[in-house]
Design a protein that fits this description.
The complex is a heterodimer of chains A (171) and B (190).
Chain A lengths: L4 H28 L4 H17 L3 H11 L5 H28 L1 E14 L10 E11 L5 E9 H20 L1
Chain B lengths: L1 H20 L8 H8 L5 H21 L3 H13 L8 H25 L5 E11 L13 E10 L6 E8 H24 L1
Helix pairs in contact in B: 1-3, 1-5, 3-5, 4-5
Classes of the chains: A alpha+beta (171), B alpha+beta (190).
């Protein structure tokens, strides 16, 4: 029996983020409770985007100050220290989580088309298959991805799924 | 001797034009071609030659000429009066060029006309869930993990990772059988 490697990695990262990211998040909740709802929303999104863009402690502090003038100086100093120490790992977790995000297919639509002509080639005469996938990500967010395949590519795609089904039957 | 050299330079010019126009090599510039292949030709004269060759190559590629069409076209071009026509050597070089590059040029034109991301790669594996903290009965059984590598021409790949249970895989197979059926019908009608 196989245990999914992906799942193992996901659990490990969640534990890590809890330990380090949590300190930063807890501190921000204490201080945003006195703000208006807009302020606290801005605060949370500042941290999320700070991780994603891998900014420095100085930059984080200046972004928070821009977001609201109510941040006590002492809190900003603590945040600066925490971010300088742990900001990089928050960024890394977000990166890994993006790569390991495994979605579920909700719907698949297809079309078979023939490219007839274009401005650079008058007679393309090229059939192709286009798939539109509706995918629900672990976050619950639904996104659409579409892509094209040539006929040979599609036939290989089909063959791969047949093999998958055969393996799943025997497992 | 001089003829062989001239023919070589001409062939190389046509290949260079293909690199720039079809294979999207932005480093192959007009100036580079002149310096490498026709250094003794004055820049203005080279421009005339370059533009004429490029125009002919583009016409041939756009129409995706077969052998007969190409011969007819080139013959007509050599018969043109004034400076706009082709010399016999140029026609010969163009004929050789198209014979060897037609398929590749066509492939790149096709690729340029594809604006959706293409499927660059597909890998998959099947897992059997050994245990789960919340005991999802629905998730027992094999799960297929599929990684699709998608990308547009000249851009980095994006990876889409999906999981399928057996039912979902069978749904996919049914849809793909429908696609195959459509393709078969299309072939029958053409």
């Amino acid at each position: 029996m196989l245990v999914s490697d992906c799942d193992k990695k996901k659990k490990k990262n969640r534990r890590k983020k809890k330990k380090r990211g949590e300190n930063v998040v807890r501190l921000s909740t204490v201080h945003t409770s006195g703000f208006d709802s807009r302020g606290s929303q801005r605060g949370e999104s500042i941290f999320k985007s700070a991780g994603k863009s891998n900014i420095s402690g100085d930059e984080l502090v200046s972004r928070l100050e821009d977001g609201s003038s109510k941040w006590p100086k002492a809190s900003l100093q603590v945040l600066h220290r925490l971010w300088t120490e742990h900001g990089a790992s928050v960024h890394a977790q977000q990166d890994v989580q993006a790569i390991l995000s495994i979605g579920q297919l909700v719907d698949m639509q297809w079309k078979l088309s023939m490219a007839v002509s274009s401005d650079t080639c008058r007679s393309l005469n090229s059939p192709y298959v286009c798939l539109l996938l509706k995918v629900v990500e672990p976050s619950g967010h639904i996104c659409q991805r579409s892509f094209e395949m040539t006929i040979p590519q599609f036939q290989n795609f089909h063959k791969q799924f047949k093999e998958m089904a055969a393996v799943m039957e025997t497992v | 001797m001089a003829d062989a050299e001239a023919a070589k330079s001409l062939s190389a010019l046509l290949h260079g034009i293909a690199q720039s126009v079809f294979y999207k090599r932005s480093d192959v510039t007009e100036e580079l071609l002149r310096a490498e292949l026709f250094p003794e030709l004055p820049p203005l004269d080279f421009r005339v030659l370059h533009d004429k060759m490029r125009g002919v190559v583009k016409s041939v590629a756009t129409a995706d000429m077969d052998r007969a069409q190409l011969e007819a076209f080139l013959t007509a071009q050599t018969r043109k009066q004034g400076g706009g026509g082709l010399s016999a050597e140029q026609a010969a070089a163009l004929s050789r060029f198209w014979k060897s590059q037609r398929v590749r040029v066509r492939e790149s034109l096709l690729a340029q006309s594809r604006w959706e991301p293409g499927l660059r790669g597909l890998s998959w594996r099947v897992d059997l869930q050994a245990a789960a903290s919340r005991g999802h009965a629905a998730h027992s059984g094999p799960v297929a993990l599929v990684e699709l590598e998608l990308g547009r021409a000249g851009q980095d790949s994006e990876f889409v990772c999906l999981e399928f249970d057996e039912a979902k895989v069978n749904e996919m197979l049914k849809k793909m059988a429908d696609i195959q059926e459509s393709m078969d019908r299309l072939v029958q009608h053409t």
